[in-house]
Specification:
The complex is a heterodimer of chains A (about 80) and B (about 900). A three-stranded antiparallel sheet of chain A has the order 1-3-2. Chain A contains four helices and three strands; from the N terminus they run ααβααββ. Chain A has a single domain (about 5-70), classed as Arc Repressor Mutant, subunit A (Orthogonal Bundle). Chain A has helices spanning about 5-10, 10-25, 30-35, 40-55; strands at about 30, 55-60, 70. With about 900 residues, chain B is α/β, with parallel strands linked by helices. Chain B is built from 25 helices and 38 strands. In chain B, the strands form eleven sheets. In chain B, strands 1, 2, 5, 6, 7, 27 and 38 form a seven-stranded mixed sheet that branches. A five-stranded parallel sheet of chain B has the order 14-13-12-15-26. In chain B, strands 17-24-18-19-20 form a five-stranded parallel sheet. In chain B, helix 6 packs across helix 9. The chains are: A alpha+beta (about 80), B alpha/beta (about 900).
Chain lengths: ~80, ~900
Amino acid sequence: MTREVREVVRDEPLVRRRLLQLLEAGPLTVPELAAASGHPADEVVIWVMGMRKYGDVTVGEPTPEGYFSYAVAKR
Amino acid sequence: MTDYDVLVLGSGIGGMESALKLGDMGYRVLVVESEPSIGGKMILLSKVFPTLDCASCISTPKMAATAHHPNVSVLTDARLERVVRMTDGGFSATIHQTPRYVDVAACTACRQCELACTVAVPDQYNGELVSRRAAYLPFPQALPQKALIERAGTSPCTFACPAGIKAHGYVSLVRSGEYDKAFALVSETTPLVGSLGRACYAPCEAACTRGALEGPLAIRRLKRFVADVHYGSDGNHEAPARPEPSGKRVAIVGSGPAGVTAAWQLARAGHAVRIFEAAPVAGGAMRLSIPSYRLPVATVERDLANLAELGVEIETGHLVRDLAELRAGGFDAVLVATGTPLAARLGVAGEDLDGVRSALGLLRDLKLGAPVDLTDRTVAVIGGGNVAIDAARSAARLGARSVHLVCLEQREHMPAHAFEVEEALAEGIELHDGWGIADLSGSDAVASVGLKACTAVFDADGRFAPTYDDRRRAELGADVVLVAIGMEVDTAAFPSLAPAGSRRLRADPATFRTAEEGVFAAGDAVSGPSTIAQAVGAGRDAAHMIDRYLSGKDLAGLEVPLPVVSHDAVLARQRAYTRREAFVHRPVLSPAPRGFAELEGPLSEDEALAAAGRCLDCGVCSECHECVAACPADAIHLEMRPEDHTVRAGAVIVSTGYRLFDADLKPQYGYGRFKNVVTGTQMERLLAPTRPYHGVLRPGDGKVPEKIAYVMCTGSRDETVNNPMCSKFCCMYSLKQNQLILGALPLADVTVHYIDIRAAGKGYDEFFEQAKAMGTTFIKGRVAEINELENGDLMLSYEDIAHGGVRVAEYDLVVLAVGVQPSPGIARLFEDGLELDPQGFVLEVSEDDHPAATSIPGVFAAGAVTGPRDIPESILHAGAAAVQAAAYLQSTRVPA
């Protein structure tokens, strides 16, 4: 079932640490993060874009399949 | 005399244009904007058609000119409530000003508050494609470029806490993994974090909005969790910094929750505090009467150790009887917080027999380690409150053969909390509800309890006045009787504070002052028996007043919370809620309990995160105070409150624009269900320089789309959604987006499914041709429905008029070119009633010869509030409205 945006966004502080832990091992695309974390890809997009907005992740190069990879931002 | 010549409602491109033109003419203008920034919708666009000029580059100079024009004043975050036309032809307007909770003069827009904020909400300025924070700057070009904090009110959990602890705040900190900060937030109120985490009756949970779904959050246990984590890492964190000494000394009599909390607050304010406690140990009821299976001694002692870190001294075994002597001893103020140490007596025959004692006395002996043995005794506990339950369950643990609980009330009306009664029954306590005590009997020691049926506990006025049916009697054999029918204040200890006959100490309920200069009283000694949280709240507030007394300030200034947010208002924010099970982890109870080991286990970190993750952020801002701590300019002021004020103006211009069609009202297109179906507004944001993503990506999986379809006339020219009107500029903004997409994604295929392309404007048809030349494909015909494939791609079923038949095509991303609708709620603002056209837009009563004139003389409409208008048209129309308003002002002026 698709969750409403407000509900997904509300979870961002809750999942942020987990996603950053997964990215510590190396850059991942959204589908890879979704598979690793067990969350739907559309929810991961919202969270990763929020983390990008607030400086937690950086954007890498696109893959041949058309997905960008994301890495933990160095502060 | 008016305050302003013209009141302009709305600060989109139309409102700004009218305001600037009138300002340039020398009129005094007030712009009222409900959003936190001026600029309306245009500032959020990528580019404008047909020139493809940067929208921001056109908008931001207008915004700056509006904000800084000497004749134009701007109120953002302001909602017009009512406009009344006066007899002189002018207007009186009531405006509701929502605070930003930020001192805009001090704010430097550094975003530290936003980065620290623990609450994430959808970013409405980015099409809800990404999050923002409750503390935020709206968007990069916002004007004023100042932060604000979104507050819907006080969250019910926080509002319900009698201690004033920011429950929502520490829940949101736990959710963010900030456990020590959560501990620190609770510590802003009281040092009793661990004790409250175990023994509080959690009114916060009773108020929790999530209780209306699957059950409330385990808020109390989250407090215990942060205490467990914090105390578990003792030695790893620094002692709190001691404040600058004030040079003042405060004596506190009593070390219960009120006294300890007051001491904590006063020490944090820099005062030297000494607590005098008559008992051999500190902690009051927490340490002396709550059984260890509920509240371990070590927890209370660890909480009390926090006081020592701030330099608070506790002198136990010191019975204070002479307050004047204390004052004479160098204390600048005294707080009496001695609680309710005395047990009420039954007043029946046999009460002084051996084996009869107060429940409080038994509990106190237990907590002090005195030998107490009830092995094989038959125990009767008299009373229906929490102390009775504590005594009964303690008796069971002490080996009693049987424990009987006798109370006046029927079970459902017992003062004890229902869950405690349930737990007592599960531990084998036998309940005798609805019985009063006739007498106690026995030869040398008590052997029997005479019972009489209680017919009513309270009289018609709700006063305690039990009545009995003397014909219904019973006998209960018992060789130990524990009396727990009430706790009383030791008024005899402080006769100067307790008027004759009073059962409590007397203090001003607002200031906590007593009749003696410099002596304050608070907590149960004043209020009578309450809860730990209530006593904590009283201690905190009393300390606030004592601090002001010592500083020579008036005794006022207690925090007044924002009104509580209603459950309905919170739940209405979403159409559906995913089920998230309440964390229910009741202690395992034995019918024959032994020992006083703590019953309730700790939460694991995963359990705590799962519990905190259920929070609905009712108040939006959680009051975690992270923004306050992060702001380098001390600009955050959560104590700000809304204000209503009235202004007078000579004329009014309404320029509140339009709203977009709600795309999920066309369910066959799947908006809201299919993640790769977006609206034209969302695509606008994806294309804008200040976009939510780092490019044009699919919201469903972050993929760069290769095949993009536009569905024109979504919600316009459509009788099925009761909107037969053409929205006029959707064709043009879609053509603009087509070209921008092809610029950003040169390999993409863009297809437009349309009914007609309406490109009637200077350079518009050429713009259409340009889109075709760049490679956009145009298919004439309606789209019937959209279906989603497993990989997120979308199958469009559409009519192809040019080639005939219904066809199906697959796309990566679908953009719905949504139409416009009237801005709601305008007409009701005007007492005289503002006429609307059949679609609901503001009616121009004589559009051909008096454009912008409405049905109310002196009220004019500018821009898309009168119907769909693109940007150039809106600007032209706003100019007309300004001229009309100027002419009206001249016509109503009384000649000098």
